[in-house]
Design brief:
There is one protein chain. By secondary structure, the protein is α+β, with helices and mostly antiparallel strands. The chain has one domain (13-197). Helices cover 30% and strands 30% of the residues. It has helices at residues 13-67, 182-187; strands spanning 73-76, 95-97, 99-102, 105-112, 119-121, 134-138, 149-161, 163-174, 190-197. It is elongated and about 95 Å long.
Protein backbone atom coordinates (compact mmCIF):
# COMPACT_ATOMS: atom_id res chain seq x y z
CA UNK A 1 0.00 0.00 0.00
CA UNK A 2 1.41 3.39 -1.10
CA UNK A 3 1.15 6.37 1.17
CA UNK A 4 1.36 9.85 -0.41
CA UNK A 5 2.64 12.74 1.66
CA UNK A 6 0.26 15.60 0.97
CA UNK A 7 2.49 18.05 2.87
CA UNK A 8 5.36 17.78 0.37
CA UNK A 9 6.33 21.32 -0.72
CA UNK A 10 7.36 22.20 -4.30
CA UNK A 11 7.29 25.07 -6.81
CA UNK A 12 4.77 24.99 -9.55
CA UNK A 13 5.80 25.75 -13.13
CA UNK A 14 4.08 29.13 -13.01
CA UNK A 15 5.96 30.11 -9.84
CA UNK A 16 9.29 29.16 -11.45
CA UNK A 17 8.50 31.18 -14.58
CA UNK A 18 7.51 34.24 -12.50
CA UNK A 19 10.67 33.98 -10.37
CA UNK A 20 12.95 33.64 -13.41
CA UNK A 21 11.20 36.60 -15.09
CA UNK A 22 11.66 38.84 -12.04
CA UNK A 23 15.31 37.80 -11.69
CA UNK A 24 15.93 38.51 -15.39
CA UNK A 25 14.39 41.98 -15.08
CA UNK A 26 16.59 42.76 -12.07
CA UNK A 27 19.75 41.53 -13.84
CA UNK A 28 18.94 43.48 -17.02
CA UNK A 29 18.34 46.64 -14.97
CA UNK A 30 21.63 46.24 -13.09
CA UNK A 31 23.55 45.65 -16.34
CA UNK A 32 21.92 48.66 -17.99
CA UNK A 33 22.88 50.89 -15.06
CA UNK A 34 26.45 49.53 -15.16
CA UNK A 35 26.82 50.08 -18.92
CA UNK A 36 25.34 53.58 -18.68
CA UNK A 37 27.65 54.59 -15.83
CA UNK A 38 30.65 53.15 -17.69
CA UNK A 39 29.75 55.15 -20.81
CA UNK A 40 29.35 58.33 -18.75
CA UNK A 41 32.78 57.83 -17.16
CA UNK A 42 34.31 57.13 -20.56
CA UNK A 43 32.69 60.25 -22.06
CA UNK A 44 34.18 62.30 -19.22
CA UNK A 45 37.64 60.87 -19.95
CA UNK A 46 37.18 61.53 -23.67
CA UNK A 47 36.15 65.15 -23.08
CA UNK A 48 39.12 65.68 -20.77
CA UNK A 49 41.54 64.18 -23.30
CA UNK A 50 40.17 66.32 -26.15
CA UNK A 51 40.36 69.50 -24.09
CA UNK A 52 43.90 68.78 -22.87
CA UNK A 53 45.11 68.10 -26.41
CA UNK A 54 43.50 71.26 -27.78
CA UNK A 55 45.06 73.29 -24.99
CA UNK A 56 48.49 71.81 -25.72
CA UNK A 57 48.31 72.60 -29.45
CA UNK A 58 47.00 76.13 -28.96
CA UNK A 59 49.64 76.96 -26.35
CA UNK A 60 52.52 75.83 -28.58
CA UNK A 61 51.26 77.66 -31.68
CA UNK A 62 50.28 80.78 -29.71
CA UNK A 63 53.75 81.03 -28.21
CA UNK A 64 55.31 80.92 -31.68
CA UNK A 65 52.87 83.51 -33.06
CA UNK A 66 53.43 85.96 -30.25
CA UNK A 67 57.20 85.70 -30.57
CA UNK A 68 57.05 86.25 -34.31
CA UNK A 69 56.51 89.25 -36.52
CA UNK A 70 54.06 89.69 -39.39
CA UNK A 71 56.48 88.78 -42.15
CA UNK A 72 57.31 85.46 -40.53
CA UNK A 73 53.78 84.02 -40.48
CA UNK A 74 52.15 82.46 -43.54
CA UNK A 75 49.95 79.57 -44.64
CA UNK A 76 50.24 77.20 -47.57
CA UNK A 77 47.82 75.03 -49.47
CA UNK A 78 50.50 72.87 -51.06
CA UNK A 79 50.66 69.47 -49.36
CA UNK A 80 53.93 68.52 -51.06
CA UNK A 81 55.82 71.68 -50.21
CA UNK A 82 57.07 70.37 -46.88
CA UNK A 83 60.39 72.12 -46.40
CA UNK A 84 59.68 75.62 -47.60
CA UNK A 85 57.18 78.27 -46.55
CA UNK A 86 57.37 80.72 -49.39
CA UNK A 87 53.81 82.02 -49.56
CA UNK A 88 53.56 85.65 -48.52
CA UNK A 89 49.95 86.57 -47.90
CA UNK A 90 48.45 89.82 -49.09
CA UNK A 91 47.57 91.66 -45.93
CA UNK A 92 44.09 93.05 -45.27
CA UNK A 93 42.84 89.82 -46.77
CA UNK A 94 42.13 86.43 -45.24
CA UNK A 95 44.17 83.50 -46.48
CA UNK A 96 43.69 79.87 -45.55
CA UNK A 97 45.76 76.74 -45.89
CA UNK A 98 46.61 73.33 -44.51
CA UNK A 99 50.06 74.28 -43.24
CA UNK A 100 51.00 77.09 -40.87
CA UNK A 101 54.50 78.53 -41.13
CA UNK A 102 55.97 80.55 -38.25
CA UNK A 103 59.65 81.36 -38.60
CA UNK A 104 61.28 77.98 -39.26
CA UNK A 105 58.48 76.05 -37.58
CA UNK A 106 55.76 74.39 -39.62
CA UNK A 107 52.51 72.93 -38.34
CA UNK A 108 50.53 70.52 -40.48
CA UNK A 109 48.28 67.48 -40.50
CA UNK A 110 50.05 64.11 -40.56
CA UNK A 111 48.95 60.49 -40.67
CA UNK A 112 50.62 57.69 -38.73
CA UNK A 113 51.90 54.62 -40.55
CA UNK A 114 51.09 51.70 -38.25
CA UNK A 115 53.84 49.55 -39.82
CA UNK A 116 56.70 52.03 -39.26
CA UNK A 117 55.10 54.26 -36.58
CA UNK A 118 56.28 57.29 -38.54
CA UNK A 119 54.21 60.32 -39.52
CA UNK A 120 53.86 61.67 -43.04
CA UNK A 121 52.08 64.69 -44.47
CA UNK A 122 48.38 64.11 -44.95
CA UNK A 123 45.50 65.63 -46.80
CA UNK A 124 42.09 65.96 -45.18
CA UNK A 125 40.80 63.01 -47.22
CA UNK A 126 43.60 60.82 -45.79
CA UNK A 127 41.99 61.16 -42.37
CA UNK A 128 38.38 60.39 -43.32
CA UNK A 129 38.67 56.73 -42.29
CA UNK A 130 37.74 56.22 -38.64
CA UNK A 131 40.75 53.91 -38.21
CA UNK A 132 43.36 56.40 -39.49
CA UNK A 133 45.37 58.09 -36.76
CA UNK A 134 45.99 61.69 -37.83
CA UNK A 135 47.50 64.39 -35.67
CA UNK A 136 49.11 67.83 -35.83
CA UNK A 137 52.89 67.77 -36.02
CA UNK A 138 55.72 70.24 -36.23
CA UNK A 139 58.39 70.14 -38.93
CA UNK A 140 60.41 67.53 -37.03
CA UNK A 141 57.41 65.14 -37.15
CA UNK A 142 56.88 65.59 -33.44
CA UNK A 143 53.17 65.12 -32.69
CA UNK A 144 51.53 67.84 -30.61
CA UNK A 145 48.77 65.49 -29.44
CA UNK A 146 48.77 62.17 -27.65
CA UNK A 147 47.50 58.89 -29.05
CA UNK A 148 44.06 59.29 -27.44
CA UNK A 149 42.99 61.83 -30.05
CA UNK A 150 42.64 61.81 -33.85
CA UNK A 151 42.47 64.99 -35.91
CA UNK A 152 39.98 64.65 -38.76
CA UNK A 153 40.08 68.17 -40.17
CA UNK A 154 42.55 71.04 -39.94
CA UNK A 155 42.67 74.50 -41.45
CA UNK A 156 44.63 77.64 -40.68
CA UNK A 157 43.39 81.12 -41.58
CA UNK A 158 45.37 84.32 -41.25
CA UNK A 159 44.16 87.88 -41.49
CA UNK A 160 45.67 91.24 -40.78
CA UNK A 161 43.63 94.18 -39.62
CA UNK A 162 46.28 96.18 -37.76
CA UNK A 163 47.07 93.08 -35.66
CA UNK A 164 47.74 89.76 -37.34
CA UNK A 165 45.35 87.00 -36.32
CA UNK A 166 45.65 83.27 -36.90
CA UNK A 167 42.47 81.20 -36.70
CA UNK A 168 42.75 77.46 -36.15
CA UNK A 169 39.85 75.23 -37.14
CA UNK A 170 39.98 71.52 -36.42
CA UNK A 171 37.78 68.51 -35.84
CA UNK A 172 38.87 66.02 -33.20
CA UNK A 173 37.60 62.64 -32.12
CA UNK A 174 38.75 59.84 -29.79
CA UNK A 175 41.16 57.37 -31.34
CA UNK A 176 39.53 54.05 -32.17
CA UNK A 177 42.50 52.01 -30.97
CA UNK A 178 41.82 53.09 -27.39
CA UNK A 179 39.04 50.48 -27.31
CA UNK A 180 36.31 53.10 -27.52
CA UNK A 181 33.10 51.92 -29.13
CA UNK A 182 32.44 53.39 -32.62
CA UNK A 183 29.15 54.93 -31.49
CA UNK A 184 30.96 56.84 -28.71
CA UNK A 185 33.55 58.05 -31.21
CA UNK A 186 30.86 59.53 -33.45
CA UNK A 187 29.00 61.03 -30.51
CA UNK A 188 32.14 62.72 -29.19
CA UNK A 189 33.41 64.48 -32.31
CA UNK A 190 34.64 67.88 -31.25
CA UNK A 191 34.67 70.88 -33.61
CA UNK A 192 37.08 73.52 -32.36
CA UNK A 193 37.89 77.03 -33.50
CA UNK A 194 40.06 79.66 -31.88
CA UNK A 195 41.79 82.84 -32.97
CA UNK A 196 45.25 83.82 -31.77
CA UNK A 197 46.54 87.38 -32.12
CA UNK A 198 50.12 88.53 -32.19
CA UNK A 199 51.15 91.07 -29.61
CA UNK A 200 50.53 94.50 -31.12
CA UNK A 201 53.44 96.88 -31.35
CA UNK A 202 52.12 100.09 -29.79
CA UNK A 203 55.30 102.11 -30.38
Amino acid sequence: MKIFNKNHLAFTLIEVIVAVTILSIILISVMSIYITSTDINLKTDITRALQQNVKSVVEVIAEDIRKSSKKNISVEMDKDNLWDCTLTPTWNDTKSGVKLCIWSNQYYLAVKDIATWNYSRAEITDCDDIEEHCTIVKLNNKPLMNSWVDVKNLEFKISDNWVKKVTILMTLQPAIWKWIKPNLIKENRFHFQTTISERPNLN
